[in-house]
Amino acid sequence: MIDNATTPLDLSDEPAYLDAVASARTAADAYYGSGESGMDDATYDRLMRAITAWEDAHPDQVAPDSPTQAVAAGVVTGDVAHSVRMLSLGNVFSAEDLTEWAASLQRRLGGREVDGWAVEPKLDGVALAARYQGGRLVQLVTRGDGSTGEDVSHTIGNLAGLPMELTEPVTVEVRGEVLMTEAQFAAANEARVAHGGTPFANRRNASSGSLRAKDRAYQVEQTFIAYDALTDPEHTSDPRLAELTHADLIAALAGYGLGTTLGTDIETRSCATLEEVQARIDHIGAVRAGLDIELDGAVVKANDPADRAAAGSGSRTPHWATAYKFPADKKITVLLGVEWNVGRTGIIAPRAVLEPVEVGGTTITYATLHNPADITRRDLKIGDRVYVLRAGEVIPRVEGAIAATRTGEEQPIAFPETCPRCGSDIDRSQERWRCVRGRGCGQIESIKYAVARDCLDIDGLGEKIVVQLVERDLIEDFADLFTLTRDQILSLDRMGDTSADKLLAAIASAKTQPLNRVFCALGVQGTGRSMSLRIAAYFGSMDAIQAADAVALERVDGIGGEKAPVIVAEVAELEAVIAKLKAAGVNMEQPGWTPPAVDEEAGDEANEGLPLAGLAVVVTGGMSGPLADYSRTEMNELITRAGGKASSSVSAKTSLVVAGEKAGSKLKKAEGLGIEVISPEAFAERLADLL
Ligand SMILES: NC(=O)c1ccc[n+]([C@@H]2O[C@H](COP(=O)([O-])OP(=O)(O)OC[C@H]3O[C@@H](n4cnc5c(N)ncnc54)[C@H](O)[C@@H]3O)[C@@H](O)[C@H]2O)c1
Ligand SMILES: [Zn+2]
């Protein structure tokens, strides 16, 4: 599917260009002003790319109020002058763009090659300058228009990562990003609502709003992460700083006690080559979804201070750094309604019905809302424009509503009075509401479903018997059927020897049903008879289904990016039931199964016949044997030549891991995922023809 946010907008003439400038202006005014723009970043970025393209082609017709002309579109100013301007960053969106940008930087350096790179996350928050004098934090200033910012020193003490005192009495101005973790965001919303305010639409709004609000009756904690400092002798008492590479500068700042990414999975790293840069960007992109802070890309910087000085800066961006933007994981759409579903344990969970929106290549129509209290906390209303977040392969969720764009037509969300499945009372003592019947709610329906014709097809197990079995606590779910004794069955009303034996035989023969029927009986959302058949035919065994992640499930015909994570979550929830079935000797295999053809994604036709065709390979640890002298880049090139895809991190998509000496976490992860691991020697043997 096409990601609309990356397809170019074509501005055909000057009126179209001026229209685009006007829309971008309106959005930027709202975004940098109140913080509540009705446009999402992906849409804004796409508009800006079109505007930039038109301006490049018509340099004489650039509108004076074009948002391309100033940092923060020139919207915000302040009263504190920046001694060195705080700039924005240029953007690239692909490996090709990055190569092109690196080449242009090299041209700026008079053709000299860049002396190494630093790669770090592009943190999605608000830029802040923190001034320390003799080791004491004395002033905080926002970026503003880059030349002057706003004094926000009133937040001193509320930013983790910006201690009041450094470990050394140094004078220095540190620059970095202020952002909120999920917990900080929740706390900020709670405090705001408790003081009569409306909750924030998203985390970035919350950061910006909380930073700029003065005279607040309450405190909001945020996180500061440093990515730069003013290093020239005019601005710091530590002369060492000016000599450091970017990566070492970050380490020095961490040494002062400042918050940095150091020690995390996404820490600032030095990279010798563009291949290493790309691998590091891919790594940051791969782990992004699991982080507690939000990233919208990776930043690539010239590592050497001499290169940075030689490259200099333009009016809005430095020439020595660029942002490699990741596809947007957040979009704005309309909340059409809320459904209340009752889970296996009786939890009553709200689910948002959305106007379909494309996020990261998947069309999203549903999103989770955690619980009723969360809806109240976020003050959501039907008809609201809301932010939907889809981080990686997990189930999308609603982050918050944009209160500024309300029309007054929005409707309150109705909460259920009684259990929407069985009509019983609701236990509201916890944040997550629950049917008072707990697991018992829907129990009879789900057992009836499991034994019906489309699933296990157990003859003689009608509703009356199911009800008795449940009510007499003989079974809790359909897996318990397989351990019923003859005496237990005989104890049921009007059950004679003959019918008991018949029923026992019917239950016993259900043990040999093919996997598709056993899986169907589990009653996983969205997996009826034919979908269960497709899943069983693809994976072949219950173990393989249980091991599958969302990416693997999406390879099954008919399962998209929206359904896959729901199935993964439900299968995980059913672990205990599946374990009981296994223990009872129920068949867990699909008869006559053959492994599906190699993954189409990785299988490049041109590579057919090559030793690693279609395989995603990760190299870790020190190489030895014939590969002893191979650098990581050379290893990656070798893998590519052999038709494989080199990757820096291990995931369920990885087909093979080459583990050398001192291999650590990647090897462990591969073993955990059951991925084939081989030694450098064995790998060399496989590729003997190519060495
Ligand atoms: N939705 C809207 O209506 C709207 C309007 C205007 C702007 N925007 C969004 O704002 C952004 C553009 O604004 P911008 O000019 O602030 O640029 P930017 O956010 O794209 O990049 C510059 C900023 O990145 C931050 N940054 C994060 N990590 C960094 C690192 N490691 N090193 C250096 N800087 C780092 C700094 O704060 C810096 O100021 C875009 O994402 C755009 O979509 C949205
Ligand atoms: Zn119920």
From TrEMBL:
NAD(+) binds at residues 41-45, 88-89, 120, 143, 177, 301, 325. It catalyses: NAD(+) + (deoxyribonucleotide)n-3'-hydroxyl + 5'-phospho-(deoxyribonucleotide)m = (deoxyribonucleotide)n+m + AMP + beta-nicotinamide D-nucleotide. Its cofactor is Mg(2+); Mn(2+). The keyword Ribosomal protein does not apply. The keyword Zinc applies. It holds the Pfam family DNA_ligase_aden. The active site is at residue 122. It is an enzyme of class 6 (ligase). One of its GO terms (molecular function) is DNA ligase (NAD+) activity. SMART domains: BRCT, HhH1, LIGANc. Zn(2+) binds at residues 419, 422, 441. PROSITE patterns: BRCT (PS50172), DNA_LIGASE_N1 (PS01055). Keywords: DNA damage, DNA repair, DNA replication, Ligase, Magnesium, Manganese, Metal-binding, NAD, Zinc. DNA ligase that catalyzes the formation of phosphodiester linkages between 5'-phosphoryl and 3'-hydroxyl groups in double-stranded DNA using NAD as a coenzyme and as the energy source for the reaction. It is essential for DNA replication and repair of damaged DNA. Belongs to the NAD-dependent DNA ligase family. LigA subfamily. This is DNA ligase. It comes from Glycomyces niveus.
